[in-house]
Amino acid sequence: MIREKLIEELLTIQNEYPELQQAVLEDAIVLKGELEFNLIDPDTGKPPIEDSYCIEITILFDFPDSIPKVKEVNKKIKRDYEHIDKDGFLCLGFPSKVGKRITENPTIEWFVDKIVKPNLFFYSFFKKYGYPPWRAHEFGGKGLFKHYATLLKTSKPYAILQLIGFRVFGNYDGHKHCPCGNGKKIMECHVVFMNQLWDIPVKWLKKDFKYMLRDYFRYYKRNF
Question: How far apart are CA 55 and CA 128, in angstroms?
């Protein structure tokens, strides 16, 4: 049913974005072509930016349970850009945040308009003025660690992973000693901050956890 609904939406996409070529594959829809935008962030006090990028968007048929992948294919975005991975895919934001938003707005048109375009605008603004239009976390696991350090009120990477892991793997026990290392039980220590994790759908929290675990073994375990 989801597949049919997404295919039906392609007519809307064709009318709204005629420059994007469409391909329906066995497990995904691929949109490829020039995407234009004219956007402004009024908080910066700068005029609108009009720009375009040649992009490729891959939407799996389990959308919105998975986040589409977006690639800029003409290398207009420098490959050393912080918010792009080694394969050229854009970092659209933390999986938990982007996932929640597309779950609430599960259409391709909304995703292109509210997720893809602002991310391209971000790069265009940064390239033009030398600073970002709004605050953005670091790419990948490092940015996520900083985000959850603020949320969970601990800067210890291992403790952050442990606390999130209790939610991800469903093995939370308030009588366990808190991994922050202060000697108290979780229910006497970080339980108030941990409760915020229950507001995040576990399927998206798992994706955050995956990136964090990768960077923990790449960087944090070596340096802490």
Answer: 20
